[in-house]
Structures are given as C-alpha cells and as structure tokens.
Fold this protein.
Amino acid sequence: AFDPSVAPLSRLMRRAMRQEELPSSDEWQAAKARVGLERLELLPPVGGQSWRARSLDSGLGLDLGGIGKGWIADRALEVLCARGFARSLVACGGDIVAGDAPPGARGWRVAALGFAGASQDSAGAQVLEISRAALSTSGDAFQFLEMDGRRLAHIVDPRSASLLEGPRAAGCLARDGATADALATALCVVGHAGLAELAARFGECSFWVASPGPAGEERAAVGAFGHNGARP
C-alpha cells in the first residue's frame, strides 16, 4: 500500500487535478506498466558509503511525497536538539514531530481534523498532547478531483493503480516522523478494511481512519489518543 515507484501515476493525477480532466486509458495503462519496486535495486554500503539505489528500468520514477516530509521533520528536530533546543516542535503541513514538552506541560497541544474518535472540540478536531513523538495525517481534504459526482483523492493505490474515492482521512502516531508519514499514507490507501492488519503489524503505533464503506463513511481508531497516543 506504500510504494514510492507509483510516481508515473502520481504525475498523471497531479496533472488531472490542474486540468480537471482525467488521463486517457492509454496514458494510465502506460504509466501503470512502469510501477513496481522490482524495477529498483538497493545496493548495500561498501567501504563506508551510504546505501545506494539503481534503476533497472528507464521508465522508473520515485515519488517520496508520502514519507519525505516526515523524514525532513525528523532531521530538523535533530538539528534543533543538537543546538540545545530539545523543547521544539517541527510542523510540515500534515506531519508533526515533537521534541520535549513545553515547560509545565505534558506535551505540545495539537488539533487533528478528521479524527475518528471521541472527545472532539467544537470544530470537530481531536486535541492531542504529544512529546518525543510524531503525528501524521493523510487524506483528500485539500487535494482531490471531483468528476461526474465522484470525489477522487490525489493518492493512488499502487497495488491496483486504481483511483481512491473519498472522502477519506487517516492518521498515525508513531515514535518518528518518517514512520508516521508512511503509515498514514498506507492507511489512507487500505482504508477501514486494512486497519486491523496494519495495527497488528505496527503495534507500537496508534491509528485512526475514515473511509467510504458499504453503509457510508466508516470511522475507526486503534490505540490510545491521550498523551503521546501511547498504546496500552
């Protein structure tokens, strides 16, 4: 459900949102044929080098938008902590990484819209307190295309190359931003039906999701969403 090689399809979807017109079937199928991580070879470190990646297909493209902001926020917090600012919070759009809590508080207060849980404020947001943890959200609240009565998210399902119908939203609380960012994206793809499996595989994280179901929108949450969203 999380595959950065989906870039050929992502590019077509971004163009579709700009032009408000879906790609042709031929364009979509040609892009779909270039998706798949088997087209990428990872080369382990040699002689003190970093990991490297080599494309095995000239048509391969990587879209790291589903993990990049979380990773960047992690690195930014590392810089702040190294310079003596451990009480910091880094926000990159829908991805937040928190350091130590502010003075006299258990954590940084963050409001998450689209949350599938209780204790929401008057604006429909869940207010969380987080410290030394990361929060990421994913969904079609701001990036979508409406065509023929359908609301299509900007996120593509890399397993089938199908467009995701919304409205849908997902979120993850984790120990670091890269993990939270990637898992929120994956949960947005699999929706309510994949929540249990994802939560079982990543038991240290907390999740919530809202996605279309047979009887309308389905909402669910797994984990604890108080201070840090720590699992029981």
Remarks:
- The longest helix spans residues 68-82.
